[in-house]
Amino acid sequence: MRTFLLCCTLLMGWLLAARPAAATHLVGGEMSYKYLDDQGGSSTPFRYQFLATVYYNKEVGSAAPDGRPSITVNIYNRSQPALLVRRVVIVRTQFQEITAALPAGCAISVPRVTMATYNAIIELPYSATGFQAIYGESARNVDIGNIDNAGGTGMALTMDITPTPIRNATPVFSDMAVAVICQNDTSFVLNNAFDADGDRLSYSFGTPYSINNAGALLSIDYVPGFSQAAPFGPTGYAALNAATGLASYLCRIAGRFVVAVDVREYRTINGQEVLLGTIRRDVQLVVRRCPGSPALPPAFTPATLARRSYTVEEGQEVVFPIEAVIAGGQPLTLKVSSALLDGAGPYDASFNNNAGSPDANTPLGAVTLTGQGAVGASFRFRAGCGSARATPYDVLAAVQNNVCGGRNIGEVFRIQVTRAAGAVGGIEGDAAVCAFSSGSYTARGLTSPQGFLWSVRGGTIVGPATGATVQVQWGAQAAGRLTVRGISTLGCPTDSVAQVVMLQPGPPISGTAFYCPQTSTGLRYSVVPEAGAVYQWSVSPGTVVGGQGTANVEVNVPNRSTAILRVLNTARPGCAGQLTIAPDMACLAFYNVITPNGDGLNDAFVIENLGHYPGSGLRIYNRWGQQLYQTADYRNDWRGEAQSAGTYYYYLQVSDGRVFKGWFDIVR
């Protein structure tokens, strides 16, 4: 008979082994991290959010019934395992008892268990090979049946940290690392994990770790007849689904046993799948003698088990049943969990029309239903635009028979989301053009009834950017890039197609690109002369006032206008050179007449753009050199102060140290 047992419900009916638990407190756990940013200290700029979850016995006599107040994590360089990079003390941020309630009238003894979480931001230096984090502590329970000298053996958890150029968050386990199975019954326990980056995960058993007094990582010593492949001895059985983390166990012996589950994280980088790292989960299993007659197991309906994997395109919806029944009309609880059930989050998913309630202790949201003899509903997911990824989304279903000694079943359903179909075949248009020229480009190989999405680098789209053809005004960069996506019939963008456009420059123009207001005439520009060249100059708006046909030109532009100056060597084919001439709006301009008569026009001595230079000092003198006014921070507010009509002189020292001298008239 098969049974599926998940953490909290698994704790129901945990019957302690015949010998009393006389050792210490460690039950299991795991670590995880998330890269934050590079805003740390100068020698340790890379910041990570670290999280450790450790399970403790909360029984009488436990050394840490609520968990240690803090734990120590050692961080080593992966290329030099003996090199300790940092030793970090992480403070406990939360603890809670997770002992489950029993059905009414059930006399089975339920042990008490505490889940403690440790959270900290850790700063690390650069590493091209990454780090390994190790947390170890003594000791395990003395009555663990598959570890030699269990009471003298500690528990150690490990976690690889990717090289610092790779931004990553480790997978996070979907449920807790404690489980109970029935003696002589094949049981299923889920060690599924969720990876926010969409990396591919692979699950396998490992040999549990211990740690010595020097902090070195050790593998535990098995009792003869037990091993990683046979954690329940020669008469038992253990297997693990490498894709989903679903473990199946069969044990003929009552007692406590320890297994380790490794999760390897793979990512495709530059077309190759690479191993980012491994995290280790330590799990303690209690094999109990299930009391009384075996309870009836629930069963998923044939419609539920007809398919376990689904593939949808971005924008499509998938709906499938998750239903279970049991003979005799017994009470059932069905819990469906998934990262897709994120409540008001970005995913559009529901079970029984409920978007789910996210759980602070796991990366999943969940919906729970109850029923008598039958329970179930439809799971619905509409894949949003941008939700495609290389790995599937998992939907976990667990059903429990809510009677004393009741049985559980479970299953994992997987939804693969692919990119929107119908990518553009290519882009038609000139792949080499003159800088500053314009061009027309057309999406080839796809008629997109929903339109297109164009984007450009090194230029500007002129007019609509959603049609099959687009107009581009190129700039001065050496190369531009034009990208287009189609819009699928479901309204999602397809894969993009890009074309690099080489921008060929004309003769480079030397001369100021900015002019001060009121000094926009007589501006001079030049190009490096070539033998036999005839240069055609133009400026718009503005006028070429001298040098036409030569390598040197003089132009006037309207004051405060932005103008485009172009030059072309008409003696040979080629591209035109171009320069944008713009007014310098931070340039100081001095008015040389004030009329302080109160009419609101020219009433004060104004220096245009002085606001760009706060803290500029001004002194004003009359024609005999007598100082009439002084301020360390002029605000364009001197109004003549009853001075007679005539000529006056100013001395301005701006905040950047420059000095300006000149005169102005007061007219009354």
TrEMBL record:
<dbReference type="Pfam" id="PF13585">
    <property type="entry name" value="CHU_C"/>
</dbReference>
<feature type="domain" description="PKD-like">
    <location>
        <begin position="508"/>
        <end position="567"/>
    </location>
</feature>
<protein>
    <submittedName>
        <fullName>Gliding motility-associated C-terminal domain-containing protein</fullName>
    </submittedName>
</protein>
<feature type="domain" description="PKD-like">
    <location>
        <begin position="424"/>
        <end position="497"/>
    </location>
</feature>
<dbReference type="InterPro" id="IPR045829">
    <property type="entry name" value="PKD_6"/>
</dbReference>
<dbReference type="InterPro" id="IPR026341">
    <property type="entry name" value="T9SS_type_B"/>
</dbReference>
<dbReference type="Pfam" id="PF19408">
    <property type="entry name" value="PKD_6"/>
</dbReference>
